[in-house]
Description:
The chain has 167 residues and is of the alpha+beta class. It folds into 2 domains: 1-61, Roll (2,3-Dihydroxybiphenyl 1,2-Dioxygenase, domain 1); 75-167, Signal recognition particle alu RNA binding heterodimer, srp9/1, CATH 3.30.720.110. 16% of the residues lie in helices and 26% in strands. The chain has helices at residues 19-26, 84-96, 151-156; strands at residues 12-15, 33-38, 42-46, 54-57, 77-81, 103-106, 110-116, 122-128, 147-148. The protein has a 5-stranded mixed β-sheet with strand order 5-8-7-6-9. The protein starts with 11 loop residues before the first strand and ends in an 11-residue tail after the last helix. The mean pLDDT is 94.
Amino acid sequence: MPIHPEVTVGHVHLKVADLDRALGFYRDVLGFEVTQRMGTSAAFLSAGGYHHHVGLNTWESKGGAPPPPGSTGLYHVAFRYPTRRALAEALHRVLEAGIVLEGAADHGVSEAIYLRDPDANGVELYWDRPESEWPRTDDGTLAMFTQRLDLDALLATREQEDGTGPA
């Protein structure tokens, strides 16, 4: 029996080495709002007033190092933006903060940028194209791909009226 179709990912909770450093990324660069802070050990952040989309804690990781290559764990957390223009604004904030991108891709169904937070957790920032535009095979299954994303064209979307379509 398949999972109920209205189930969604509610939040991600990350172990971090330094709470203030992590807040500097998730709050100050990405723009999440702190909904609750538990001293120097944990903080909860949200977009739009939800109780939390991101939890950060140092309960088992204060001063710790990222997992070494070749170990298991989180590959990345992905944050979906409502429009292409909103993604362009996020890209602008990331670049203004001097954060290096690990990649940028057009997947047909979405456009995405990839980076690391201060604890080396993978972070994807993306927007979905309308489902009617998703690439499909003749039998209707998805035909996602990975192609180079034109970051200059994405950034130019910041200047457009509604920002929902390609630049």
